[in-house]
Amino acid sequence: MNEIFHRVSVRKFEQKPVEQEKIIQILRAGMQAPSTGDQRPWEFYVVTNREKIVALSKCHKYAGCAANAPVLIVPVYRKEGVWLPEYEQIDMAIAQENIWLETDSLDLGGVWLGIAPMQDRMDKVAEILELPKNVTAFSIFVLGYPAEQRAQEDRFDASRIHWIE
Fold it and tell me: Domain count of the chain?
């Protein structure tokens, strides 16, 4: 899993479309995530419409980098048919991480924009995408071909490890 040690937040993208096959592979990785009780609460909205992308880039003050991206993936979670709703956001975070790692493995770049649990952001995304009432917006994943390259910093900190023997 070299992607764990390679993945960085990418906020600048080439003006080049992302192939549908790669998007499907990324979503396949997201759906491969484990979930509590195998409830798989996720659904995914793939946004390539320029007007919607620009609108989503204004849904909160840190989302501006989305404006020039070729693709946004908006993971949402279902409110119905889920028997352990208190774990939905955890399940979604795992799926989102899989999406990011697969994005990196395909030589694409991305950044995860937090939407849930901020209700104002969740409502704004739902409004822009006209989401059905039975789903809740979790995040926005901005992706494309990176227009910048940089190394990931080493985040290992031995002082945060506590051995109990």
Answer: 1
